[in-house]
Each structure stands twice: as C-alpha cells, then as structure tokens.
C-alpha cells in the first residue's frame, strides 16, 4: 500500500514539475542561444549586438514573470469563497447568485459548494474553478477567471519571443552561409537546435493564439465553445427529424449569453481598459462590482438570453418528438454551469 501511495505521489509531483521545468528550460535555452551566443557573441563587437541582447532579455523576463504569475495567482476556486458554502439542504444561496438570473442554481456534489455560472469542477485540480477555460498541461493548472488575462498575455508574449528567436537564428544561418564562414569554423549546434524549436513553437503558437483570441473576442471560454458545438450538432439532428426549415433550425442554434455583442467590450472585460494593463503582467483593474471581479457573477446579454429561454420553451412544449435529442438539448439548456 505504501509503495502504491508513494508511486501516486511521485506521479502527481512529476506531472506538476515536468511541464513547468520544460517551459522554463525552453525559455532559458532561447535566452542563452539568442542573447548570449548570437547577440553578445557573434554580434558582440557591433553596436547593434548589445541592443538586441537587451530586447531579448526583456522578452525573456516578461514571458517568465507572466508564466510565474499565472501559477501564483491561480484560476480562482469556489472554495476560496465562504459565501458559496452549502450548509444544509434548505440553506439559502447567496443573493448575487439568485440575482444573476442566468440559469438554475447548481451545487457541486464533490465540493458541496454552490457553483456560480461558468464554474466547472476540474478533476485534476480537484476543485470547482470559476469561469473555467481549460486545464492547461503546460502550467499543470487550470486557467480560469483570475489568471485568464495573464494566460493570454503569456501566449502572445511567447509567440513574439518565438518569432524573434526564429528571426535572429535565421539571420545567423544566412550570415554564416553568405560570408562562407563554414570554410574555417563550425556553426554553433545550439543555435540550430534552438532555431528548430523556435520555428515549431512559432507555428503551433500562431494557431493556438488565433483560436484563443477568437474565443476571447467572442466572449466565450474553451469549454463553452465545445458546449456550443455539441448543442448545435444536436439541433441539426433534432431539426432534421422534424424536417423544419433552415430559418427554424438557425433560430434554435446556441446563443452565447455572455457575449457582450462588442469585440472591444469582450476584450476589455478580460484584458482591462488601459494600454499598461494590456502590456504589463499585472491583474486587470476592477470592473466596479466585487462579484464580477471575483468571477462569481457576469453581465448577461439580454437579447441572447431571451432567445435561449424562448427556445427552451419551444423544446419543452414540443410533444411531437419526445426523443432523446430533445431531452439532451433541454438538459444542456438547464445545466449550462455543470
Ligand atoms: Zn466541485
Ligand atoms: Zn484544473
């Protein structure tokens, strides 16, 4: 039994330490190759070398500090809010949850706490995460209400650092060939390895950043995107069985009740309103409402909420087809915070 527990502990620690060490190692290796080998080594004598070194060091520090802060601040757990504690069966839920008006109140059976809208239970973190986006293996932690802004900044900064690293490595290889340096010296293998890593990181981060930016500007989390896809797929099946018109099918499709309707507003709700907040690894300034700041309550798009409620009624009163898909759609409409 002890051996089993020790093994379990080892696996838990490894899954926490390995990805975090790997991210820091990739960043440090890039700083060494670009900053020290190329900027201070190959270009050390030129006037541009030290300038490029300071830019590289600045990008490195921004990335590492942001990464550290995503972990340090954490996603925000329901367990940190004593007012979400469910004491007895008939215990009244806090007012701000009742007033939120978005959906029925839910209780997490594992945490025994009220679950605000957009909160989900993460089995890896073993807690309910506020405005859960996803559990990120690169941080070995959830991304949620409190660290989402810093997570987005880290993604954007990592893309800039990877492209910067790629460009300088490319320049190094080009110069080596153009000046025929290969006749009397070897190319630094570290720079080549780092260049390959930077190129693959640039491509994968460009795709991932693009997807994450789309979610952010649409005011939805990664989980909500999958919920929307599942729901719309079921609407297709349901409408197909009813042989309804295209307009009728489209009117039943998912509406995001947390989308403010403005790309800029969706950006500012997460990233803050000032340039300093967008650039520096600081937390977003207050939204003017303690429950919104804490990720317990959200402004609701009334137009979209009205459509979703109307659709719920339409489905509920559709006696023509009491099939599985209809009950699944109703289930998704009434349990959107599970
Ligand atoms: Zn939970
Ligand atoms: Zn998690």
From TrEMBL:
It is found in: Membrane. Residues 327-338 have a biased composition (Low complexity). Its EC number is 2.3.1.225. The chain crosses the membrane at residues 21-43, 49-70, 154-174, 186-208. Residues 103-228 form the Palmitoyltransferase DHHC domain. Residues 316-338 are annotated as: Disordered. It is an enzyme of class 2 (transferase). Signal peptide: none annotated. It is a multi-pass membrane protein. Keywords: Acyltransferase, Lipoprotein, Membrane, Palmitate, Transferase, Transmembrane, Transmembrane helix. One of its GO terms (cellular component) is membrane. Belongs to the DHHC palmitoyltransferase family. The DHHC domain is required for palmitoyltransferase activity. This is Palmitoyltransferase. It comes from Wickerhamomyces pijperi.
